[in-house]
Fold these 3 entries.
Entry 1:
Amino acid sequence: MSVAQAASRVAAATAFAVLVIAAAGVPDARAQATVAPKNRVVMQVSDGEPAKWNLALNNARNLQSDLGSANVEIEIVAYGPGIGMLKRDSTVATRVDEALTSGVKIVACENTMRAQKLAQPDMLPSIAYVGAGVVEIMQRQQQGWSYLRP
Amino acid sequence: MSVAQAASRVAAATAFAVLVIAAAGVPDARAQATVAPKNRVVMQVSDGEPAKWNLALNNARNLQSDLGSANVEIEIVAYGPGIGMLKRDSTVATRVDEALTSGVKIVACENTMRAQKLAQPDMLPSIAYVGAGVVEIMQRQQQGWSYLRP
Amino acid sequence: MSVAQAASRVAAATAFAVLVIAAAGVPDARAQATVAPKNRVVMQVSDGEPAKWNLALNNARNLQSDLGSANVEIEIVAYGPGIGMLKRDSTVATRVDEALTSGVKIVACENTMRAQKLAQPDMLPSIAYVGAGVVEIMQRQQQGWSYLRP
């Protein structure tokens, strides 16, 4: 083998290796972008009207029935005038219980509770709590959740 | 040319080739991140008030006039109490037609139609249909569309 | 050194260089994806009721007090019927001033102002302006900001 032939073979083999590695690396990044996204929806309830609370609960149920309950993660965040949805005397108490049982996560904003002088005994059982509803909604979006304001 | 010279030249040529390919490959990934995003907006219409329907149609028109109709994709999803916007007797029927003509996609939620005993002949012509409005809105966000609730 | 040995050494050195460059490039892309997201929230104010304006200002304050003002960027976009929040005679003028002082960016939609025959002297001082509120809200989401509609 002459020196020129050796150089040529090395260059060819190297170019091939580089292309293989590049091909292995770049599509990997693309695969991450095209993988099926998880179905996750954060819903904001900040209105005081029971009609909006019912709409939120309908939306949650429709997401579950269309996608299958196991295939969608739903979190309802109640704050501001929407906090009434989660009080013990809420007109939608039964439906909130059903949603919790079906796997929907429902959280009350402690900032709002403090402002309205509400404590956990004033609230429906089985719900969860977050320090600030707006921070929760922002963070869910940062984590890739879709936003829905019924 | 000695063997050492040959090796040196091959190594230099190879390092250059690797850098060229790396430069072609890695900035490609970065370019995808910084490339101008497509302008795509999914609008939720879930209120029963015609004022909200008009606001949604105004918003669509403003997006088109500011960005150029060819540069923005808009989809209006009507569901829940918002379904009235797309009924044959809708107070904004003419404006819905104009929006459709201008390239806005307008879809009605079949879950809502079923609940309100509406069939396609009850609805404005030329609109499209989706199984569940909330699923459509979630999926558009998963696809990178911006969300707007007028 | 024989030609074969030279070729072998060049190939080994090259493969190493390629792996180093690949290792430097690909994890870099992954690091970008997992880095802690900046806290940035764009708020839409498009309702005419002062209760909604107060809720938006409460939400901004809660974001700041929970995360620390230095750790969250907030922009309130007023348009449509929401433009009244930013007029000189606004019922929440004092609170708008306080929000501006605390670092919240507050912008009025010039499309809306034109439609309502409003000029900058009609508006609160220190606010900023955007051509189209809806375009601003879309672009902020494209830039990774979370969306909140109080």
Note: The longest helix of chain B spans residues 3-34.
Entry 2:
Amino acid sequence: MKLASLKHGRDGRLVVVSDDLAWYADAGHICATLQGALDDWERVAPDLAVLATDLRNEAIPRERFHEHDAAAPLPRAHQWLDGSAYVNHVALVRQARGAEMPESFWHDPLMYQGGSDGFLGPRDAIPLADESWGCDLEGEVVVVTGDVPPGATRDEALAAIRLVGLTNDVSLRHLIPAELAKGFGFVQSKPASAFSPVFVTPDALGDWWRDGKLHRRLMVDLNGAPFGRADAGVDMTFDFGTLVAHAAKTRALGAGTIVGSGTVSNRDADGGPGRPVAEGGVGYSCLAELRTVEAIRSGEPLTPFLKKGDTVRIWVEDDRHHSVFGAIEQVVG
Amino acid sequence: MKLASLKHGRDGRLVVVSDDLAWYADAGHICATLQGALDDWERVAPDLAVLATDLRNEAIPRERFHEHDAAAPLPRAHQWLDGSAYVNHVALVRQARGAEMPESFWHDPLMYQGGSDGFLGPRDAIPLADESWGCDLEGEVVVVTGDVPPGATRDEALAAIRLVGLTNDVSLRHLIPAELAKGFGFVQSKPASAFSPVFVTPDALGDWWRDGKLHRRLMVDLNGAPFGRADAGVDMTFDFGTLVAHAAKTRALGAGTIVGSGTVSNRDADGGPGRPVAEGGVGYSCLAELRTVEAIRSGEPLTPFLKKGDTVRIWVEDDRHHSVFGAIEQVVG
């Protein structure tokens, strides 16, 4: 089952979307919003599933689904927690800085609490008031949970995952060092993230969803050229069950909590830093990683951060190159 | 005007409360929830104000208001940002650790993004699975904003403040050092916060609300004994206008954003660390500060963190010793 929120008010209008993303059926008679559905999932999800089946069978009125009409599936949420599960990425960034990475980073997930009061839709521009802030994309996989009890195990956490999707976790790189030095995490350096047009139930992903990971390549294009093709199922040190359980160690997580993987990142085939797609590698899911590799190779980063007018595209394909979650496609403006 | 949410579902049931906190009138015919009212404040607030006047004049049906029936005014929110505006408190804690405080801390607010997916009501127990986590109270003032545009000035931020209230920002002190060392802020070390039974519009606070500060003493009792009597209007280095503008530097803040002051803390009359209430001082709004003072005086902290069965009470009084926001009164359980 694929769910989306068409732009409408602050919380969108819940629709069920066909598997090929071509059509939608209004779900308003079942539940007005996706948050409402997550709040009452046991009761609502079966009805939404029936609607999805009817849509597949063309048994109900349907409308054309246009990705640019979609808000973020949760246009605002009550919680957004982002991990750094691809520790390879963290190790690389540290290496470029000449900073040692604590060994504990391989066992204890890095995670920050992000702002969830207003997310960008998949085709919304990335607002950027000042290019000197060093605006970067971060291509990630996310999950949305139901209620998670405090102290949940990894298995309990996995069972609480309701939906899977993608995010562009926009980062202002030049504001990060000063904020992180204060120790209190990100506030100014993490403006609103954008999300894929649809979120998908794990069962609808079949074999691509296993071991708490999405086993597909995360496609990232920058200004129309292939930039990242890393496999989200590879080099993910902490699966989503582990990330959700980490977040729930001392407190319950409310239904509709979004948990992110952190920037997807694969090692190169030889175990070293990834190479650009143009050089036969799987590339990168953020500019910071490319700049890090450049710094390791040539002493300094060469690729600039995002400028006004740059375009970012993030998506995942099935075996026939059809989009699974729809595409995040944003212009910096 | 004083607003509360009676316990009901995930978002409570909006009521208007009398100035003396004795009575309430249901506001459901105007707006079902406080979040809904904040989403549409320009339209809804005048109607709520009329209801408050009618309640004052006993012109409408009213019911007894019991603080233990209240949820947090926003039982869940879309954003909770907590500052550390009483820099004196930060300086003290650092001094006890032997760590120097950067001079920038006097100009650049410390602020973290907290979890907002589920808050505790004012009389809810503080869930504590493990006493070794070092559970602490933190008595703070909070404001709730309307929509704040990105890059808002301090004056614009001040004008966007809709409500003022109190919080007990529960902290797990022994989990903090390891999380802060990672640089990504608090996740496990900040479980759900509790809020005062009512939030109050700034105009209803009269002269107590000025310069973006609440000029009243924050009363904190621990196990029935006076623990803190610090004036929230004193030694607050960053006022709420500055804190909100800090949060909005690179992004909009959605209506219903809660911004906290951080632990209220006053210097002693001689400029040194505050003394306990029993020694004629204004005491403390968290155990960590008392433990810090103990460490400075005698080489080690003496007072333990919260244990199961301990009670915490946080409130503010008017000149006749009547409660302004109602009391947060929690047992550790």
Note: Helices of chain A lie at 34-39, 41-56, 87-97, 154-159, 176-182, 240-247, 287-298.
Entry 3:
Amino acid sequence: MDNTVLLDRISTDRLQDLAQQLRVDSVRATAAANSGHPTSSMSAADLMAVLLARHFRYDFTDPHAAGNDHLIFSKGHASPLLYAMYRAAGAIDDAELLSYRSRGSRLEGHPTPRVPWVDVATGSLGLGLPVGVGLALTGRYLDRLPYRTWVLCGDSELAEGSVWEAFEHAACHELDNLTVVVDVNRLGQRGPTRHGWDTAAYARRIGAFGWHTIEIDGHDVTEIDRAYTEAAGTAGQPTVILARTHKGRGVAAVEDQQGAHGKPLPDPDQAIRELGGRGSPGWRSSRPRSGSGRTRSGLARCTCGADVVVLDGEVSDSTRTQCFADEHPERFFEFYIAEQQMTAAALGMQARGWTPYLATFGAFLTRAYDFLRMAAVGRASVRVAGTHAGVSIGQDGPSQMALEDLAAFQAIHGSTVLYPCDANQTARLTAALADRRGVSYLRLTRGATPVIYEEGGEFPVGGSRVLRPSTDDQVTIAAAGITVHEALLAASQLTARGVSARVIDLYSVKPIDAATLRQAARDTGRIITVEDHWAEGGLGDAVLEVFADGTDEILPIVRTLAVREMPGSASPEDQLADAGIDARAITSAALTLARA
Amino acid sequence: MDNTVLLDRISTDRLQDLAQQLRVDSVRATAAANSGHPTSSMSAADLMAVLLARHFRYDFTDPHAAGNDHLIFSKGHASPLLYAMYRAAGAIDDAELLSYRSRGSRLEGHPTPRVPWVDVATGSLGLGLPVGVGLALTGRYLDRLPYRTWVLCGDSELAEGSVWEAFEHAACHELDNLTVVVDVNRLGQRGPTRHGWDTAAYARRIGAFGWHTIEIDGHDVTEIDRAYTEAAGTAGQPTVILARTHKGRGVAAVEDQQGAHGKPLPDPDQAIRELGGRGSPGWRSSRPRSGSGRTRSGLARCTCGADVVVLDGEVSDSTRTQCFADEHPERFFEFYIAEQQMTAAALGMQARGWTPYLATFGAFLTRAYDFLRMAAVGRASVRVAGTHAGVSIGQDGPSQMALEDLAAFQAIHGSTVLYPCDANQTARLTAALADRRGVSYLRLTRGATPVIYEEGGEFPVGGSRVLRPSTDDQVTIAAAGITVHEALLAASQLTARGVSARVIDLYSVKPIDAATLRQAARDTGRIITVEDHWAEGGLGDAVLEVFADGTDEILPIVRTLAVREMPGSASPEDQLADAGIDARAITSAALTLARA
């Protein structure tokens, strides 16, 4: 039996009933939690009811089915509506619905993939739409499956630049498998949005980017249904449905009222009565779309990297991802200078089981820091390569230098931070990230560095390499990346001065090799850390943290060398010298420390 | 003598000569430096020649003149062109031009305010335009002066979401004092841009946002001149001039060629001959615009905060900046959910001597991290308040929690990071930031906390408050913000268990009160740090760094308590308990440590 035929039989009345039921459950969940965003849920209830009943192809019993559609709540604060949909579909029971926002519940204040039907965490506005673009790209170019991606946006979040990166990218790729529904309820958190109910203002803008636009009354289920059908039937263009709605729709006390954002309704029982009382759930799961794509099972990991996808931010010549593009054009994606869209696309791709690596200058990853933070909230696995780290890039000056990247990436929950110092180590660590869960960061140096390691050497994540160890070492120099070479030079200079120095290559900044550092503390009592990064949050802090769990009996004297003044333009060598992180500076610090 | 009359006499030939001179000097500067972006400069030379000669009102001998126009090179890599303009205007001499990118030169690879004619550092694409919006807002609404703001953008950077935040904001504020010139040279760093020379594609998009658009041949000085005149004469709308140009214009070896980005020309001498040889500079400075605005001098700082401006990211009800808006609507700016534009606007405002404070949820400041990093590169002074810090926000869940903000802001060069724990302290520290240079961050808690300090108390930046000190203290608890209250509770619990604990309120996380911490190390030998932040880059690391300059004779045993698992939704109290940063956890850690 074809699903479409079945769904045609659903009457308008039943759609309206379903919408009211979603509203009631949004009210109930937020009342039970005594927090949350019922009014932001109620405005979009009709939109989601029609989607769930008639257009969303999804088997809730099998969230990983390849043909399942994808639904992203970019307005993540409307999570009560999403969870109400799950209840209506029978995916969760009433007791779980009412556990909303309580300790231990997977129904968090904003959706996360702790719930199996959620692809990515949302709640930072402006993120869901570019992730949707990533899923639509995945469907079209990687999975090659006919699933559709649906994104529910708020109107407020259209002020975020990230959504315009997404509008541009989706239209240029003619992603007609993507439909964005904007719940234009005209009220943001603190008051009216800039454009209010002027959906034409949005349509002009989004239309100019090449989207098909439809403006509707977002509470008229017939108009909504027609819009979805039109969206699905539009070829060569993504569609945005701009739906005029009322925040808090259906309950007079809050409908279209300011000051009702992010609060449970004042009188939930009255509200439920006003909405027609508690309905009973029972929307059954529809079937995924069928199609013969490149499903995950068809791409076994044993085919060695066949699920690796590379994303570029218009610097593939500098980052050298062009080599991958030449060999695997079908798995290379150019995002131009749009780091947020690039990162969000990686989130979408990994949600479908692909293994994305994205690369740009490390400095410009700061543009996507929110999305990387949210990647961790969403338990996503993405691999990020940041090139042009530190002052050693030389003449281009500080705007192009990643000097805060170690701090930023270490502060992402569950992250891995690697910082190789030569080509062979880089190759191995790059490969190692494929199997790494969470957000991984590979910090890369711009210039050519000497090759000090054997090809194919082992560099386990969480390990280190101890160079020049000796039992009578008087001082340890802990370095990574470009400073490893300076440290080796310093160690030679120190030998000439009668000081024996151990050098540790801490290529794994997080997790760090605590055992080796503790051994060094015992052996030498003195550790100098040296890094091409600001003094805050980098390698030095990572080393200090090893000795800060209150258990160590031997605390080493530590001296951290790092960049402490704003650099200008200069040669790489001069930059390292001026920052006090070159061999000479290390030698000087080591002599002082060794004699202390 | 009216300047306009004078300029009308300049012949087309002389404009072309000036343009060629700018090209020649761009080639010479990059050849001398053996690095830089001559081709990106050459494409825009005609555009900038006509601007400099005929439309830009600026007294190079008095860069702080209130009536000066503002010119922002959003494509900061075209700095050779900017410096060539300075030479043409007689602001720098030839020797300085040729110091480009050399050690110590203020003519860095990308412009910074080390050069007095530069308002803000650029070089991270997508930043200059929103800063230009900030300057135009300042001219219109704060300074109330007739100066114009001109922004030179590259075409590649129109892929950045931040520029669309700017297009939206500028049009909605009808900033007809803003003109954006897009150098559509069709070639990005790695190859063709998405839209190539299709200026109509850009015009449709930007026009839909409400801008006046003009498409021209960017090498035709007559068309350029006419476009500037049209822009200046357009009322109620900002204007974008979309200029089709050739990258590397004027030198056959590189003109419109791929692979010529960011490199000195292969044969500079030949190129200079091809461009007509070295001209001689001698463009004299034009006069600033005159007008009676609210100039800086009219707003003496003694009028107590009269230069304070508050910027909101659509959360003024939560951050409580609404109070300021109610009292000073003329100095309150709503940016809706567009953190990049909000931050960039602050950069523009401070460049004109205003004292901007911007506020939103701390978590969402990650959206503007690149701009905050660039603020430091540009020696800008902006004050940032981030609310809803840490797990203690409770039910909303991790997407709304600032848990990496201490790391991110500490890693901004020259930053100040403050974290008050009660209302009186917050008031004093907020006021203290007005006089603070650089990027300042005020971390704020969502919930109500007990008031423990006297009204009007002194809380110097770089200081701390020692609570419950005693000569026989056995352990020190270093806390800030919400954990101060947990620490005080723990200290009471510890007293009951026979352990005397000193509590230090480290409200100044950066700079930190090293002397007080060293005293605590001497007195107690044991320090517990406790923070509502990830373990990386926060308060704990800041404390550890105090003892990492290699000089300390007494190293304390340190134990860092911080958030180490991804939180979900729960009550604030449960969140603190689950993260192991509540009074009970502190007490337990202190007992262990005190007995170690």
Note: Confidence is low (pLDDT under 50) at residues 1-7, 295-303 of chain A.
